[in-house]
Amino acid sequence: MMDNVGGSSSNIAENSGIIREQDRLLPIANVGKIMKQILPPNAKISKESKETMQECVSEFISFVTSEASEKCRKERRKTVNGDDICWALGSLGFDDYAEPLRRYLQRYREQELDRANNPPKRG
Amino acid sequence: MRQAGAYSGLLCGGVSGRTGPHSLPLARIKKIMKNSGEGVKMISGEAPIIFSKACDLFIEELTRRSWIMAIQGKRRTLHKEDLASAVIATDIFDFLITLVSNSDSHAVGGATNVMEVETIDYS
């Protein structure tokens, strides 16, 4: 298997449809940082556990996206939106996430509306 | 003049940039969503933003539960076995059991296992 470390092979990888390892996972530094901030200061995190968490997060995204996408298909809609993600989380047992995310989504939309109604003066 | 809101940092860097203090790259999240199945047609701009937050919550929960396993093992370093134990012990993480059981597969040098995601109906 081709080693895809580094960006020079991105065109080849993209053209041949290979999902590059680095495109399949969220960056280990970001994932590690979130893990670290939830643990006590004296905790250590092995590299292997960060790598396993990277895999788990990608699987979580795919799992929830598939559920959301299926809902869209049944409703004959083409675009997966934020509401679909929140619904899918609840449907898959992540009820504790769905409610704070609905509030987060609402704030995001309110902010989008605010930006639309108040364009920057220098824009 | 409009004052910066409490959430105005949400959109720093635009949709393909980062959001918030524990941000995850939105472009990468979108790519993972697109690769989750042929059924995923279009993804709204808000969906990766919601997922960024959802992934924060997911990483935090799995890390916290894994840490409990490490502590029970009288260790201060989080190992991948702790993640596997946390996955096995937690119902909503059932979809990860195969993944954490085979988390060495990518190190063997073989092709990446593409797991079929089963939609679990809890109702």
Automatic annotation (TrEMBL), chain A:
UniProt-listed GO biological process terms: abscisic acid-activated signaling pathway; regulation of transcription by RNA polymerase II
Domain Transcription factor CBF/NF-Y/archaeal histone: 25-89
Keywords for the protein's UniProt record, in alphabetical order: Abscisic acid signaling pathway, Activator, DNA-binding, Nucleus, Transcription, Transcription regulation
GO molecular function, one term: DNA-binding transcription activator activity, RNA polymerase II-specific
Stored CDD domains: HFD_NFYB
Top-level taxon in the UniProt lineage: Eukaryota
Pfam family of the protein (one): CBFD_NFYB_HMF
Gene Ontology, cellular component aspect: CCAAT-binding factor complex
Localisation: Nucleus
UniProt cross-references to PANTHER family, sorted A to Z: CCAAT-BINDING TRANSCRIPTION FACTOR-RELATED, NUCLEAR TRANSCRIPTION FACTOR Y PROTEIN
Family stated for the protein in its record: Belongs to the NFYB/HAP3 subunit family.
Protein name (database record): Transcription factor CBF/NF-Y/archaeal histone domain-containing protein
UniProt organism field: Glycine max (Soybean)
Lineage of producing organism: Eukaryota, Viridiplantae, Streptophyta, Embryophyta, Tracheophyta
Gene it is expressed from: LOC100794902
UniProtKB/TrEMBL annotation, chain B:
A Pfam family: CBFD_NFYB_HMF
Localization terms from the record: Nucleus
Domain Transcription factor CBF/NF-Y/archaeal histone, first and last residues per copy: 23-87
Entry GO terms, CC: nucleus
Coarse class of the protein's main subcellular location: nucleus
GO molecular function, one term: protein heterodimerization activity
Signal peptide positions (record): none
Keywords assigned by UniProt, alphabetized: Nucleus
GO BP annotations listed: regulation of transcription by RNA polymerase II
PANTHER family listed in its UniProt record: HAP5 SUBUNIT OF HAP COMPLEX, HISTONE-LIKE TRANSCRIPTION FACTOR CCAAT-RELATED
Protein name: Transcription factor CBF/NF-Y/archaeal histone domain-containing protein
Gene that this polypeptide is encoded by: NF-YC08
